[in-house]
Write a structure and sequence with these properties.
The structure is a single chain. The protein is mainly alpha-helical. Helices cover about 30% and strands about 0% of the residues. The chain has 1 helix and no strands. The chain is flat, with a radius of gyration of 14 Å. The N and C termini lie far apart (about 30 Å).
């Protein structure tokens, strides 16, 4: 049975790339996730070896 993830504190955004609260990211993690998001938006086809 799946349980819901804990609800974030009020105003705490969840990162769409890694599903962690953005407030828990280090500066390096923020940079990595934002780069992944930009790359994902440019190329939305494929992924995980699927063409």
């Amino acid at each position: 049975m799946m349980t819901e993830p804990p609800k974030p504190k009020e105003g705490d955004e969840i990162c769409p790339m890694c599903r962690r609260p953005k407030s828990k990211h280090s500066p390096e993690e923020l940079l990595t996730c934002s780069r992944k998001m930009v790359e994902f938006k440019k190329n939305t086809t494929g992924g995980a070896g699927i063409e």
